[in-house]
Amino acid sequence: MKLAPKLVLTILLLLGVLLAAGGGWLTKTDFERNFEQARTQNTLAHRRDTYSLQNGLLAKAGSGEITSQEVADYGSSLGLYVGQEQGGFAVYQDEQVMYSSLPAALGQEAACQAIEAGEEALLLRKAGQNSYMLMASPVQAAGKQYWLVSAYDVTNLFRAREEKFRELFRLELAALALAGTAAALAVSWMIRPLKKLEKASRAVAAGDYTLSTATKSRDEVGALSRSFDAMTATVRDKVDQMEDTILRQKQFVSAFTHELKTPMTSILGYSDLLRSGEMNPEDQRQAVQYIHREALRLETLSGKLMQLMGLVEQEELTLEPVRLVLVLRDTAASLPELAPMLDIRCDPSLTVMADRDLLADLVRNLVINAARAQPKDGRVHITAGRTEEGVALRVADRGRGIPEADLSHITEPFYMVDKSRARAQNGSGMGLALCARIARLHGSELRFTSRLGQGTVVELILREGEE
Amino acid sequence: MKPILIVDDEVAIAQLIAMTLARMGYTCQMAFDGLKAAELLEKNEYDLVLLDIMLPGADGYELIDFIRPTGIPVIFISAKTTVADRVKGLHLGACDYIVKPFAPEELLARVENVLRLSGRGQALLQAGDVTVDVGTRQVKKAGQEVALTPTEYHLLLVLLHNKNIALYRDTLYERVWGRDAELDTRTLDIHIHRLRKKLGWQQMIRTIPRVGYRLEETS
Amino acid sequence: MKQNLFTAAAFLAAFAFLALALAAPLPLMEQSDQELYTQVMTRQLADDGRSAQARSNEFARQLYDRDQLLRVKNYAGAILQTTTAEIEAAAPYRLYDFLQQLDFWSSENQAELEQQISQAQRWETISDSVGFSAWRVYTMWEDAEWAELEWELSAQDRLVRLRMMTEQEYTWEDLEHMMDEYLAATGLEEIDDWQAVDVAPQFYVAEGITATLRARYSPGAKLYLYANYVDGVLALGVCPLEQEELAQFGASLMEE
């Protein structure tokens, strides 16, 4: 069952039970009170009647005995002016009725029971539709013992109770109906935010992260609502991030596969030719040459790829203070054929927080690129200096430069500005991607400035360290 | 027969294709970028263009628009393998689409097909007095039809595709019976023997010791 | 859809249950009624604190009942509304009959009383439904002063109270003696918790005037018995009194 009906039902049931219990208790106590009142009243009345009878009989007796007739007469005369009020009384002598104005329906038995019960007792008896309180007391007169049995009609008590209860019942039903309606309204109003929440969660489940539940109330539902919105926003961001990542990965894989297929085609094709039949020596040499070259290309590619993959898995680097000039020396040493082109200007005391090997790799790659750009002055300029941002390391060349349109893409894996030339130089498009990754692991970024035909400057800001 | 134009920015691959086609007796010309290709197309006439899609300068899709009015058939060669790419290529009017990396055999077969369908290529393969109509799969010796089993026919085609080249036994066997077939090159010998008999090519199919077989044609 | 049906069914069930619950008191009432109709209840209303003895003693009961029924605090006849009546010849005899039972009642007492009655100028009397009757007689004393004579008797001729002018002198022992005999004659002797009560006069006692006040109280019967002799007036009687009301008379139970 839905929440709203559940709540309303609970409220109704609780209220109903309370009303029933309360109503019942009310009716009971009311009746008891009235009963007590009637009992007191009737007891007093009976006592009065007893004295009246007694005195009456005494007066009649005088000295002699009282005859039954006299008793009966007295009884009726007493009956006249002792207010009966739908009751009546009887006078017994030794279980003989001398006079009775008791209601017929009561019968003799009731009266005898009353007498038997004694003068401290009070009985309640039903006669037909009516109920009576019965009391019997002894009366002594002229040496004889008589019993006065009084009956007082208390039917009203029961009738009143019944009426009151019926009225109460109707009232309670009405109250419940009203309460039910009110509760239904209130509950459904309070639950509105939950419905909104449900709608929003369904939307999220379907992939739509744009709905918000926007509840203003300060209660738990409002809080839930706000948490939900926050959660949705987070999910949305994460999904966007993931989609982004997946897209980049797809692009990477497709570029990689493509880069792979070309050398593979050559290797497979030429080797197939070689194994199918005899070729003339010139062709043979050519075929083998191509196979070897493409294989080398594959090697470089996979090597750079491995490196990149390795770096991708690393989240952080442990940086140590390193003297920059040493790193540059490492780079120069690893490129003997390019060493004469290098123009290094770096303060020997400059120390940066870096990973020595990776930083050397980065500079190496930048230098190779710079050299490949065929600088007009035949030099690759490496400078390092302090700036307000940190230590700036720059690799500059006066080569052919990078077109503006390509600038934002050059650090993408496999991206080559000029494919044919790059391939001719054994380029694979991975070098800058690697450098960019290394830069990021150092907490920095590569900055490219280039003008076609004039040259390129690549800048990297590093944190200064203490030796 | 006019030459075939090969357009691919990878020199190695262009030369590979040229070498493969040369065995069939086709002459080829190569262009390494779109602009050069357009230049050559304007100057010369060709029977077929093998076109790479990713080219510097004009890319393959642009070039095909340029070539179509001339009526020269085009086969796309590309590393782009997705169905969408292939369909796009075919929709643009290419006669066929080959995916890199490709087996030279496959390339040959497709080229032959396209040439035949466009009525440009040799309808008939010939060696000596034997003609093979690839379209109808009829083999005639001196005008008389010769019945060959499918395997014999296939073997014959391979020989014809590699005229004057000594073919290695293993490769030959593989080409005809497939890589998964059990390696019993004796069947190869038996089939060669049968072909020789049916076509009277005892002299034309030369056994090269320690190598394989060669179909010699001295023309 | 199923859920809606289920909800509707649940509500119907709930209403049915509630209707039953609301009506539940009915059978319970039936049940308790059955008990009422079969059981024997006591008439004893509030616990009035009276002892069983007091309840069974006829005189004590009558006094108590009159107090309850008429709601009249009838101390020494203070608030009685009497009506003028004819001289009743027989009435004094009932008094005489009772007084004769008392030892201390001497012939002098009797003579005094008779004289007062014979000299009566005006009679007033009243009786109530419980059977008590009281007489007030306006008479001459010593041929000079007006005197009032009052007495009250129950239907069974027990003296409730007497107030008369007298020349006799009574000491406190006399008064105590009088009370003892009174208790015996009325049957109130049955009640065994009569306690002595300290009484202080609530009125101004001038010099030379004798005022002897004696009293007893029974907490079980809630009855106050008094015998006073003040300045030539003898007063003897009993009246229902709650223990708290003793203080009003300047009376307090004496320490045991």
From TrEMBL, chain A:
Residues in Histidine kinase domain copies:
255-466
The main enzyme category here is transferase
Task: Provide the protein's localization.
Answer: Membrane
Where's the HAMP domain?
188-240
**InterPro entries referenced in this protein's UniProt entry, alphabetically:** HAMP_dom (IPR003660), HATPase_C_sf (IPR036890), HATPase_dom (IPR003594), His_kinase_dom (IPR005467), HisK_dim/P_dom (IPR003661), HisK_dim/P_sf (IPR036097), Sig_transdc_His_kin-like_C (IPR004358), TCS_sensor_his_kinase (IPR050428)
Q: Mind telling me what this protein is named?
A: histidine kinase
What domain of life does the UniProt record list for this protein's source? Bacteria
EC code(s) of this entry: 2.7.13.3
One GO term in the molecular function aspect is: phosphorelay sensor kinase activity
What Pfam family is a match for this entry?
HisKA
Chief place of localization: membrane
Give the CC-aspect GO terms: plasma membrane
Source organism of this protein record: Allofournierella massiliensis
Q: What does it catalyze? A: ATP + protein L-histidine = ADP + protein N-phospho-L-histidine
The protein's UniProt keywords, in alphabetical order, are: Kinase, Membrane, Phosphoprotein, Transferase, Transmembrane, Transmembrane helix, Two-component regulatory system
Please indicate if the UniProt record lists Lipoprotein as a keyword: no
UniProtKB/TrEMBL annotation, chain B:
The terms describing its cellular component in GO are: cytosol; protein-DNA complex
Q: Which residues form the OmpR/PhoB-type domain?
A: 122-217
Q: Does the keyword Electron transport apply?
A: no
Domain named Response regulatory: residues: 3-115
> Which residue ranges carry the DNA-binding annotation?
122-217
What's this protein's name?
Stage 0 sporulation protein A homolog
What are the alphabetically sorted keywords of the record? DNA-binding, Phosphoprotein, Transcription, Transcription regulation, Two-component regulatory system
Q: What is the lineage of its organism?
A: Bacteria, Bacillati, Bacillota, Clostridia, Eubacteriales
From the Swiss-Prot or TrEMBL record, what is one GO molecular function term? phosphorelay response regulator activity
The answer to whether the entry has keyword NADP is no
Q: Which residues carry this modification: 4-aspartylphosphate?
A: 52
Q: Which GO terms describe its biological process?
A: regulation of DNA-templated transcription
Which InterPro entries has this protein been placed in?
A: CheY-like_superfamily (IPR011006), OmpR/PhoB-type_DNA-bd (IPR001867), Sig_transdc_resp-reg_receiver (IPR001789), WalR-like (IPR039420), WH-like_DNA-bd_sf (IPR036388)
Described purpose of this protein according to its UniProt entry: May play the central regulatory role in sporulation. It may be an element of the effector pathway responsible for the activation of sporulation genes in response to nutritional stress. Spo0A may act in concert with spo0H (a sigma factor) to control the expression of some genes that are critical to the sporulation process.
Per its UniProt record, what PROSITE patterns does this chain match?
A: OMPR_PHOB, RESPONSE_REGULATORY
From TrEMBL, chain C:
| Designated name of the protein | DUF3298 domain-containing protein
Organism of this sequence: Allofournierella massiliensis
Q: Where is the signal peptide?
A: 1-23
Q: Which domain of life is it from?
A: Bacteria
The UniProt keyword set, sorted, is: Signal
* Taxon lineage: Bacteria, Bacillati, Bacillota, Clostridia, Eubacteriales
Claim: Signal is one of the keywords in the record: yes
